[in-house]
Every structure is written in structure tokens, then in C-alpha cells.
Amino acid sequence: MVNSLSMAKKAHTKYKNINAIIKNNLCNGCGVCEAVCPASCIKFKWMNDLKKPEINFDKCINCGRCYRVCPGKDIESHIGVYEKYLGKTDESFIMVGAEKYKNKYTASGGFITSFLAYLLDSKKISGVLVVSLEGNDLKNAKGIIIENSSDLRKTTGSLYFSVPLGKGLKEVFKMKGKFAVVGLPCQIRGINNLIGQSKEFKGKIFIKIGLFCGFMIGYNAVKYLLDSLKIPNKNSIKKISFRAKKDDKEGFLVETSDKDYFIPISIYGTVLNRSFSNKRCLMCNDMTNEYADISCGDTHKFGLKKSLIISRNEKATKLIKLAEELGYLKTIRKMGEKDIFTSQEEILRYKKDTIDIRLKIMRLVNGKIPKFEVNSLPKSNFHQKMGSLLYILNCYLTKNKTTRRIFFLAPKSLIKRYNSFIGHLLWSR
Known about the structure:
Elements: H1 4-11, H2 19-23, H3 32-36, E1 42-47, E2 50-55, H4 65-69, H5 83-86, E3 91-97, H6 111-121, E4 127-132, E5 142-146, H7 166-174, E6 179-183, H8 185-197, H9 199-202, E7 205-211, H10 219-229, E8 237-246, E9 249-256, E10 260-264, H11 265-273, E11 294-298, E12 307-311, H12 314-325, E13 329-335, H13 337-352, H14 355-366, H15 382-397, H16 401-409, H17 412-426
Parallel strand pairs: 4-6, 6-7, 7-11
Antiparallel strand pairs: 1-2, 3-12, 3-13, 4-5, 8-9, 9-10, 11-12
């Protein structure tokens, strides 16, 4: 029970805190507010399908730092023919990582694991902050620090829901040396805000590696996948992987003590992205992780089992080339901005071109939206507006227990066709 003193402190704060973010559904669960808090009064707890921060006002010193570093309160954008879609670029490549750092859980071409191995082996960093899921409970996913390249294979693969990095960032601050961090667009923007607020953190982060994000899904989406597999004994689950390989296909793999269960990504990919995104994700326009030092994602039109890499500054490009010289990476081909745009066009168009209408709809249904520069956003067409309306409707329906149960019972083929139809609307020109 919150006492009267803490209630009074909550009501009479000099500076804004992340309560304003949570109340207005602008939290994306990045965890950076927990890292910046000097009083250690912010902890993340599960609230529906997302981990969100909670303030202990008995300990809060009312400094406002948590609000200032939050990436959920505003939207950034670039200008330029390709820059408005991709952000600033230095050089770009299609690459694959060294075979010894790959396994069946490796997503795309294994670039990130191999590149991190190079950074660790060459002593350029003391460790790397990554997200890891161990065991059968999805809610146990957490940020961990890897200090030895031989341990990187344990963390290969992708997670498709947000995991706060706050505790891991606090550990980075306490440890000696420089560190790499791997994160989603919101997490990277939050870390950039953190570096801007703290000189100590600025000296700790050696390089930021960003993951492409077509819209992050929540815990309910993963539960949907698990329920669809009809595993008789959930306690028998040993490992859950989102991008594992089985019979030359990529997909959702659940390994149990009895047998393996598998769903190809072609069946569930579009269904989850267009049905289970959290509210703040519905107001995001960053697909290629524009504010990282290096961005990494799938090559799509250039084939599977390869990584599309966007280096965003000279330092990052130099490190990539040094890693390749030492055999950690291999370049398949160099990419220009037009090549990158072509390979990601469908996702880029529906994440970038529809942000104006998505913000208008969210202003109506959510009340509050992130701040953005007037006239800085593109204008969506009629089809994109209709697709965005259906997309947001989907996501709101799956947040309700009753309508989510109906969604679970509907034929998977019907749901897939419906979501494909929404996709065609979203990326139409």
C-alpha cells in the first residue's frame, strides 16, 4: 500500500517523470529509465503483455531524469530521398558471419554474433549487453552481459517482444572497460538519450548495434504461438526459439523433453506484426534502427541466411572491415541506398509512409501521442489509411481477452489472408 507521503510526492513533483509516459501508453519497455535513476527507485513489472516501469515514490528524489531519457515521448525523422526511409548511412553490405559462431538458432546471416566475437577477441570491448531467453518461461527473458566470445553462441537468435535493458545498463556502469550493446530502435534511442544525460555512460558505450524492427509484438503474440502448437505439457519445454532452422525452413521452434514443435515463419510472421503490436509501437516510424552505429536485419529480396548491414559512421565501417580481414565476416556484396530501399521497400513503406494517419488514429483512441515536428511526416494515401485503420483495430482487439479468444479460434489460413490484405493496403503507392 502506498502511504500518504508517497502519494503526496507523486501528486506534487517538480519535474515530469515516467508516470506521465505510462499513463499515456507511450512506454515501449526499453528500460533506460531504470538505468538513469540515481535513487534506484524504478523497477519493471509485467503489466498485461509488456514490462513497464513502476516508481517507488518513497525513494524518488524528483530529479526528472527518467522522463528526459525516455524515447517514447517523441518521434524523430530525417529528410532526403532515401535518408527519410533509412537514416544516415556510411557504407552498407550483405554479409555472413563465420560458421563457428552459427547454430540452428542463428537469425539471418549471423553477422551480430560474429562481429561481437571479433570485438571481444580483439579486446576492443570488455563485454556486450544482449537479450537472452533461457528455459521455458518467456517472462524470464532478460538483458545479460557476455564477456567471452565462446559464450555468444548461447544467445544466438531473435526475440520478438521487448525486454527492458535497465538492469544490464546499470551493470555496465559498474564494470570496468567499454561495452557494446544490441537493441531495438527504441532502446538505441533511449541509450543515446542516456549518453546525452550522463558523461559516465558516454565513456562506457563503445558501439551500438541496432536491430531492424517491423513493429515489435507483445507477450500475447508469443502466447498465441505457444497455444497454437497445443503442447500437452508446458513444463516439458526446454527451449523456445523464434528464428530457428528446421528442415531448411526458419520458424518458431519449441523443444520439449518429448519432441520438437515447429511453425514456419511464413505462416505467423505477418499475422503477429499486424495483430499484436503494443500501443507505443503503433506510433513508431523507425524500421532500420536509424540512430545506431550499425544496423542489422534480414536481406529479404536477396535471400535468406544473410545479413543486411548498414554502417552509419566511419568508425563502424572500419571495424566491420577489420573483422572481415580477420575472418569473422564475409561480404557477399556491397549495397547502395537504392538497393537497401528495394530490399526492404514493403516494410519501409508501411512503417514510414503511414505514420501520419497512425498518429491521427492513435490521437483519437489513445488521447496522447509522441511529440513530432510539424510538417516533418510523409502523407499516406487512401489505401494506406484504410490499412492503418484495420491494423490498429486488430491490435486493440487482441488486447481484449474475449476478442483475443475469438482470434485464437479463427482458422489460421483465414487470419493469414486477412493480414496479407492489410499488408497490401499499407504498402500500396
